[in-house]
Amino acid sequence: MINALTIPSISSLDSFDQYMRAIKAFPLLSAEEEYDLATKLKNNNDLDAAQTLVVSHLRLVASIARGYLGYGLPQSDLIQEGNIGLMKAVKRFDPDRGVRLVSFAMHWIKAEMNEYIVRNWRLVKTATTKAQRKLFFNLRSMKKGFDSLHTDEVNRIALELNVKPEEVMEMEYRLNGQEISLDAHTDDDGDESFSPIAYLEDEGPEPSEFLANKQAEQLQSASLSKALMSLDDRSRRVLEARWLTESATLTLHDLAAEFGVSAERIRQIEQKAMQKIKGAMLAA
To answer: Is 0.85 surpassed by the pTM of this model?
Structure first.
Protein backbone atom coordinates (compact mmCIF):
# COMPACT_ATOMS: atom_id res chain seq x y z
CA MET A 1 0.00 0.00 0.00
CA ILE A 2 1.30 3.45 -0.93
CA ASN A 3 1.87 5.63 2.10
CA ALA A 4 -0.40 8.64 1.59
CA LEU A 5 1.58 10.62 4.16
CA THR A 6 4.46 10.91 1.72
CA ILE A 7 2.24 12.49 -0.95
CA PRO A 8 1.76 16.31 -0.83
CA SER A 9 -1.72 17.24 0.40
CA ILE A 10 -3.56 20.53 0.21
CA SER A 11 -4.31 20.46 3.93
CA SER A 12 -0.60 20.21 4.79
CA LEU A 13 0.15 23.49 2.98
CA ASP A 14 -1.00 27.02 3.71
CA SER A 15 -3.05 27.50 0.54
CA PHE A 16 -4.32 25.90 -2.61
CA ASP A 17 -1.92 28.04 -4.64
CA GLN A 18 1.00 26.69 -2.62
CA TYR A 19 -0.13 23.14 -3.37
CA MET A 20 -0.30 23.88 -7.11
CA ARG A 21 3.21 25.35 -7.04
CA ALA A 22 4.46 22.35 -5.08
CA ILE A 23 3.18 19.73 -7.50
CA LYS A 24 4.56 21.63 -10.51
CA ALA A 25 8.02 21.21 -8.99
CA PHE A 26 7.90 17.43 -9.51
CA PRO A 27 9.43 16.52 -12.89
CA LEU A 28 7.57 14.50 -15.49
CA LEU A 29 8.94 11.05 -16.22
CA SER A 30 10.19 9.71 -19.52
CA ALA A 31 8.78 6.42 -20.78
CA GLU A 32 11.97 4.63 -19.77
CA GLU A 33 11.99 6.12 -16.25
CA GLU A 34 8.31 5.27 -15.79
CA TYR A 35 8.83 1.68 -16.92
CA ASP A 36 11.82 1.22 -14.63
CA LEU A 37 9.97 2.58 -11.58
CA ALA A 38 6.79 0.61 -12.30
CA THR A 39 8.83 -2.57 -12.70
CA LYS A 40 10.49 -2.00 -9.32
CA LEU A 41 7.08 -1.51 -7.72
CA LYS A 42 5.62 -4.59 -9.39
CA ASN A 43 8.52 -6.94 -8.71
CA ASN A 44 9.92 -5.60 -5.43
CA ASN A 45 7.06 -3.58 -3.91
CA ASP A 46 9.39 -0.56 -3.98
CA LEU A 47 7.40 2.17 -2.21
CA ASP A 48 9.89 4.89 -3.15
CA ALA A 49 9.24 4.04 -6.80
CA ALA A 50 5.50 4.18 -6.14
CA GLN A 51 5.82 7.61 -4.55
CA THR A 52 7.79 8.94 -7.52
CA LEU A 53 5.15 7.61 -9.93
CA VAL A 54 2.38 9.28 -7.95
CA VAL A 55 3.93 12.71 -7.47
CA SER A 56 4.94 12.93 -11.13
CA HIS A 57 1.24 12.64 -12.08
CA LEU A 58 -0.31 15.00 -9.51
CA ARG A 59 -0.60 17.67 -12.20
CA LEU A 60 -2.77 15.30 -14.21
CA VAL A 61 -5.20 15.04 -11.28
CA ALA A 62 -5.41 18.82 -10.94
CA SER A 63 -6.02 19.14 -14.68
CA ILE A 64 -8.86 16.60 -14.61
CA ALA A 65 -10.39 18.27 -11.52
CA ARG A 66 -10.84 21.53 -13.45
CA GLY A 67 -13.33 19.77 -15.69
CA TYR A 68 -15.61 19.12 -12.70
CA LEU A 69 -15.77 22.63 -11.26
CA GLY A 70 -19.26 23.26 -12.66
CA TYR A 71 -20.76 21.03 -9.97
CA GLY A 72 -20.01 23.58 -7.26
CA LEU A 73 -17.76 21.40 -5.11
CA PRO A 74 -14.39 22.55 -3.74
CA GLN A 75 -11.56 21.95 -6.17
CA SER A 76 -9.30 20.94 -3.31
CA ASP A 77 -11.69 18.12 -2.37
CA LEU A 78 -11.93 16.95 -5.97
CA ILE A 79 -8.14 16.84 -6.20
CA GLN A 80 -7.81 14.89 -2.97
CA GLU A 81 -10.32 12.32 -4.23
CA GLY A 82 -8.54 12.19 -7.58
CA ASN A 83 -5.23 11.58 -5.81
CA ILE A 84 -6.78 8.52 -4.18
CA GLY A 85 -7.71 7.26 -7.63
CA LEU A 86 -4.17 7.96 -8.84
CA MET A 87 -2.67 5.92 -6.00
CA LYS A 88 -5.02 3.03 -6.80
CA ALA A 89 -3.96 3.24 -10.45
CA VAL A 90 -0.26 3.18 -9.58
CA LYS A 91 -0.79 0.14 -7.36
CA ARG A 92 -2.51 -1.74 -10.21
CA PHE A 93 -0.37 -0.48 -13.10
CA ASP A 94 1.38 -3.14 -15.20
CA PRO A 95 4.32 -1.66 -17.14
CA ASP A 96 4.46 -4.67 -19.45
CA ARG A 97 1.07 -3.83 -21.01
CA GLY A 98 2.71 -1.24 -23.26
CA VAL A 99 0.48 1.63 -22.07
CA ARG A 100 1.70 4.77 -20.32
CA LEU A 101 0.53 5.39 -16.76
CA VAL A 102 -1.23 8.61 -17.78
CA SER A 103 -3.63 6.62 -19.99
CA PHE A 104 -4.27 3.97 -17.34
CA ALA A 105 -4.65 6.38 -14.43
CA MET A 106 -7.27 8.68 -15.96
CA HIS A 107 -10.00 6.06 -15.53
CA TRP A 108 -9.24 5.61 -11.82
CA ILE A 109 -8.95 9.36 -11.18
CA LYS A 110 -12.25 10.18 -12.87
CA ALA A 111 -14.00 7.26 -11.17
CA GLU A 112 -13.07 8.56 -7.71
CA MET A 113 -14.15 12.11 -8.61
CA ASN A 114 -17.45 10.88 -10.05
CA GLU A 115 -18.21 8.90 -6.91
CA TYR A 116 -17.36 11.90 -4.74
CA ILE A 117 -19.68 14.19 -6.72
CA VAL A 118 -22.57 11.74 -6.59
CA ARG A 119 -22.11 11.29 -2.82
CA ASN A 120 -21.77 14.94 -1.95
CA TRP A 121 -23.68 17.10 -4.38
CA ARG A 122 -26.73 18.69 -2.77
CA LEU A 123 -29.25 17.15 -5.16
CA VAL A 124 -31.27 14.30 -3.69
CA LYS A 125 -31.46 11.12 -5.78
CA THR A 126 -29.48 12.74 -8.56
CA ALA A 127 -28.26 9.51 -10.10
CA THR A 128 -29.40 6.15 -8.80
CA THR A 129 -28.76 3.97 -11.86
CA LYS A 130 -25.82 3.64 -14.26
CA ALA A 131 -27.84 5.30 -17.05
CA GLN A 132 -28.85 8.19 -14.77
CA ARG A 133 -25.25 8.72 -13.71
CA LYS A 134 -24.27 8.92 -17.36
CA LEU A 135 -27.06 11.47 -17.85
CA PHE A 136 -25.91 13.44 -14.81
CA PHE A 137 -22.33 13.77 -16.03
CA ASN A 138 -23.14 14.38 -19.72
CA LEU A 139 -26.28 16.53 -19.81
CA ARG A 140 -24.45 19.85 -19.50
CA SER A 141 -22.08 19.12 -22.37
CA MET A 142 -24.82 17.68 -24.60
CA LYS A 143 -26.96 20.79 -24.40
CA LYS A 144 -26.42 23.07 -27.40
CA GLY A 145 -26.96 26.26 -25.42
CA PHE A 146 -27.89 27.60 -22.01
CA ASP A 147 -31.63 27.80 -22.67
CA SER A 148 -34.05 25.10 -21.59
CA LEU A 149 -34.12 21.95 -23.68
CA HIS A 150 -36.75 21.77 -26.39
CA THR A 151 -38.60 18.55 -27.22
CA ASP A 152 -36.30 17.43 -30.04
CA GLU A 153 -33.20 17.87 -27.84
CA VAL A 154 -34.84 15.96 -24.97
CA ASN A 155 -35.68 13.05 -27.27
CA ARG A 156 -32.19 13.04 -28.83
CA ILE A 157 -30.41 12.98 -25.47
CA ALA A 158 -32.78 10.34 -24.07
CA LEU A 159 -32.15 8.09 -27.06
CA GLU A 160 -28.37 8.56 -26.98
CA LEU A 161 -28.06 7.91 -23.23
CA ASN A 162 -30.73 5.18 -23.05
CA VAL A 163 -32.98 6.94 -20.55
CA LYS A 164 -36.57 8.16 -20.64
CA PRO A 165 -37.36 11.70 -21.92
CA GLU A 166 -38.98 12.37 -18.56
CA GLU A 167 -35.68 11.58 -16.83
CA VAL A 168 -33.85 14.05 -19.06
CA MET A 169 -36.33 16.80 -18.23
CA GLU A 170 -36.19 16.00 -14.50
CA MET A 171 -32.38 16.01 -14.48
CA GLU A 172 -32.30 19.34 -16.32
CA TYR A 173 -34.66 20.80 -13.73
CA ARG A 174 -32.44 19.59 -10.89
CA LEU A 175 -29.28 20.90 -12.52
CA ASN A 176 -30.79 24.26 -13.42
CA GLY A 177 -32.10 24.66 -9.92
CA GLN A 178 -28.53 25.06 -8.68
CA GLU A 179 -27.03 27.05 -11.52
CA ILE A 180 -25.52 30.47 -10.90
CA SER A 181 -24.78 33.35 -13.19
CA LEU A 182 -22.01 32.79 -15.71
CA ASP A 183 -20.76 36.36 -15.28
CA ALA A 184 -18.98 37.67 -12.21
CA HIS A 185 -20.86 40.16 -10.08
CA THR A 186 -19.26 42.99 -8.18
CA ASP A 187 -19.60 43.08 -4.41
CA ASP A 188 -19.92 46.16 -2.18
CA ASP A 189 -16.14 46.62 -2.09
CA GLY A 190 -15.93 46.76 -5.87
CA ASP A 191 -14.24 43.36 -6.22
CA GLU A 192 -15.44 40.80 -8.72
CA SER A 193 -16.40 37.45 -7.26
CA PHE A 194 -15.28 34.17 -8.78
CA SER A 195 -17.76 32.82 -11.34
CA PRO A 196 -18.17 29.93 -13.80
CA ILE A 197 -17.05 32.09 -16.73
CA ALA A 198 -13.55 31.97 -15.22
CA TYR A 199 -13.22 28.23 -15.47
CA LEU A 200 -15.27 27.11 -18.48
CA GLU A 201 -12.99 24.56 -20.12
CA ASP A 202 -11.93 24.47 -23.73
CA GLU A 203 -14.11 22.25 -25.89
CA GLY A 204 -11.03 20.63 -27.42
CA PRO A 205 -9.45 17.59 -25.77
CA GLU A 206 -6.84 18.12 -23.08
CA PRO A 207 -3.29 17.01 -23.95
CA SER A 208 -3.57 14.05 -21.57
CA GLU A 209 -6.87 12.96 -23.15
CA PHE A 210 -5.47 13.32 -26.67
CA LEU A 211 -2.41 11.28 -25.68
CA ALA A 212 -4.55 8.57 -24.10
CA ASN A 213 -6.75 8.28 -27.20
CA LYS A 214 -3.70 8.14 -29.48
CA GLN A 215 -2.03 5.46 -27.39
CA ALA A 216 -5.26 3.43 -27.25
CA GLU A 217 -5.55 3.55 -31.05
CA GLN A 218 -1.93 2.48 -31.50
CA LEU A 219 -2.33 -0.35 -28.99
CA GLN A 220 -5.50 -1.63 -30.65
CA SER A 221 -3.91 -1.47 -34.10
CA ALA A 222 -0.83 -3.37 -32.92
CA SER A 223 -2.96 -5.96 -31.11
CA LEU A 224 -5.13 -6.48 -34.18
CA SER A 225 -2.11 -6.92 -36.46
CA LYS A 226 -0.56 -9.43 -34.09
CA ALA A 227 -3.84 -11.34 -33.76
CA LEU A 228 -4.29 -11.49 -37.55
CA MET A 229 -0.83 -13.00 -37.93
CA SER A 230 -1.89 -15.88 -35.68
CA LEU A 231 -4.52 -16.98 -38.23
CA ASP A 232 -3.96 -19.34 -41.12
CA ASP A 233 -3.83 -17.80 -44.61
CA ARG A 234 -7.42 -18.64 -45.54
CA SER A 235 -8.94 -17.34 -42.31
CA ARG A 236 -6.91 -14.14 -42.54
CA ARG A 237 -7.98 -13.64 -46.16
CA VAL A 238 -11.65 -14.08 -45.22
CA LEU A 239 -11.50 -11.54 -42.39
CA GLU A 240 -9.54 -8.99 -44.39
CA ALA A 241 -11.89 -9.28 -47.38
CA ARG A 242 -14.99 -9.09 -45.19
CA TRP A 243 -14.01 -6.44 -42.62
CA LEU A 244 -10.63 -4.82 -43.20
CA THR A 245 -10.67 -3.72 -46.83
CA GLU A 246 -10.98 -0.08 -47.92
CA SER A 247 -12.50 -1.17 -51.23
CA ALA A 248 -15.77 -3.04 -51.74
CA THR A 249 -16.35 -5.77 -49.15
CA LEU A 250 -16.60 -9.27 -50.61
CA THR A 251 -19.70 -11.34 -49.91
CA LEU A 252 -19.74 -14.88 -48.55
CA HIS A 253 -20.58 -16.13 -52.04
CA ASP A 254 -17.63 -14.21 -53.56
CA LEU A 255 -15.22 -15.90 -51.16
CA ALA A 256 -16.93 -19.26 -51.58
CA ALA A 257 -16.23 -19.07 -55.30
CA GLU A 258 -12.62 -18.03 -54.64
CA PHE A 259 -11.89 -20.99 -52.35
CA GLY A 260 -14.20 -23.53 -54.00
CA VAL A 261 -16.33 -24.17 -50.91
CA SER A 262 -19.87 -23.32 -49.85
CA ALA A 263 -20.95 -19.93 -48.52
CA GLU A 264 -21.89 -21.63 -45.26
CA ARG A 265 -18.33 -22.92 -44.91
CA ILE A 266 -16.98 -19.39 -45.42
CA ARG A 267 -19.38 -18.14 -42.72
CA GLN A 268 -18.07 -20.79 -40.32
CA ILE A 269 -14.45 -19.86 -41.10
CA GLU A 270 -15.26 -16.18 -40.54
CA GLN A 271 -17.02 -16.84 -37.22
CA LYS A 272 -14.21 -19.02 -35.90
CA ALA A 273 -11.57 -16.50 -36.98
CA MET A 274 -13.45 -13.66 -35.26
CA GLN A 275 -13.59 -15.62 -32.02
CA LYS A 276 -9.85 -16.33 -32.20
CA ILE A 277 -9.09 -12.66 -32.93
CA LYS A 278 -11.18 -11.47 -29.94
CA GLY A 279 -9.48 -13.98 -27.65
CA ALA A 280 -6.03 -12.93 -28.80
CA MET A 281 -6.76 -9.20 -28.35
CA LEU A 282 -8.23 -9.71 -24.87
CA ALA A 283 -5.17 -11.67 -23.85
CA ALA A 284 -2.80 -9.03 -25.23
So the answer is: no
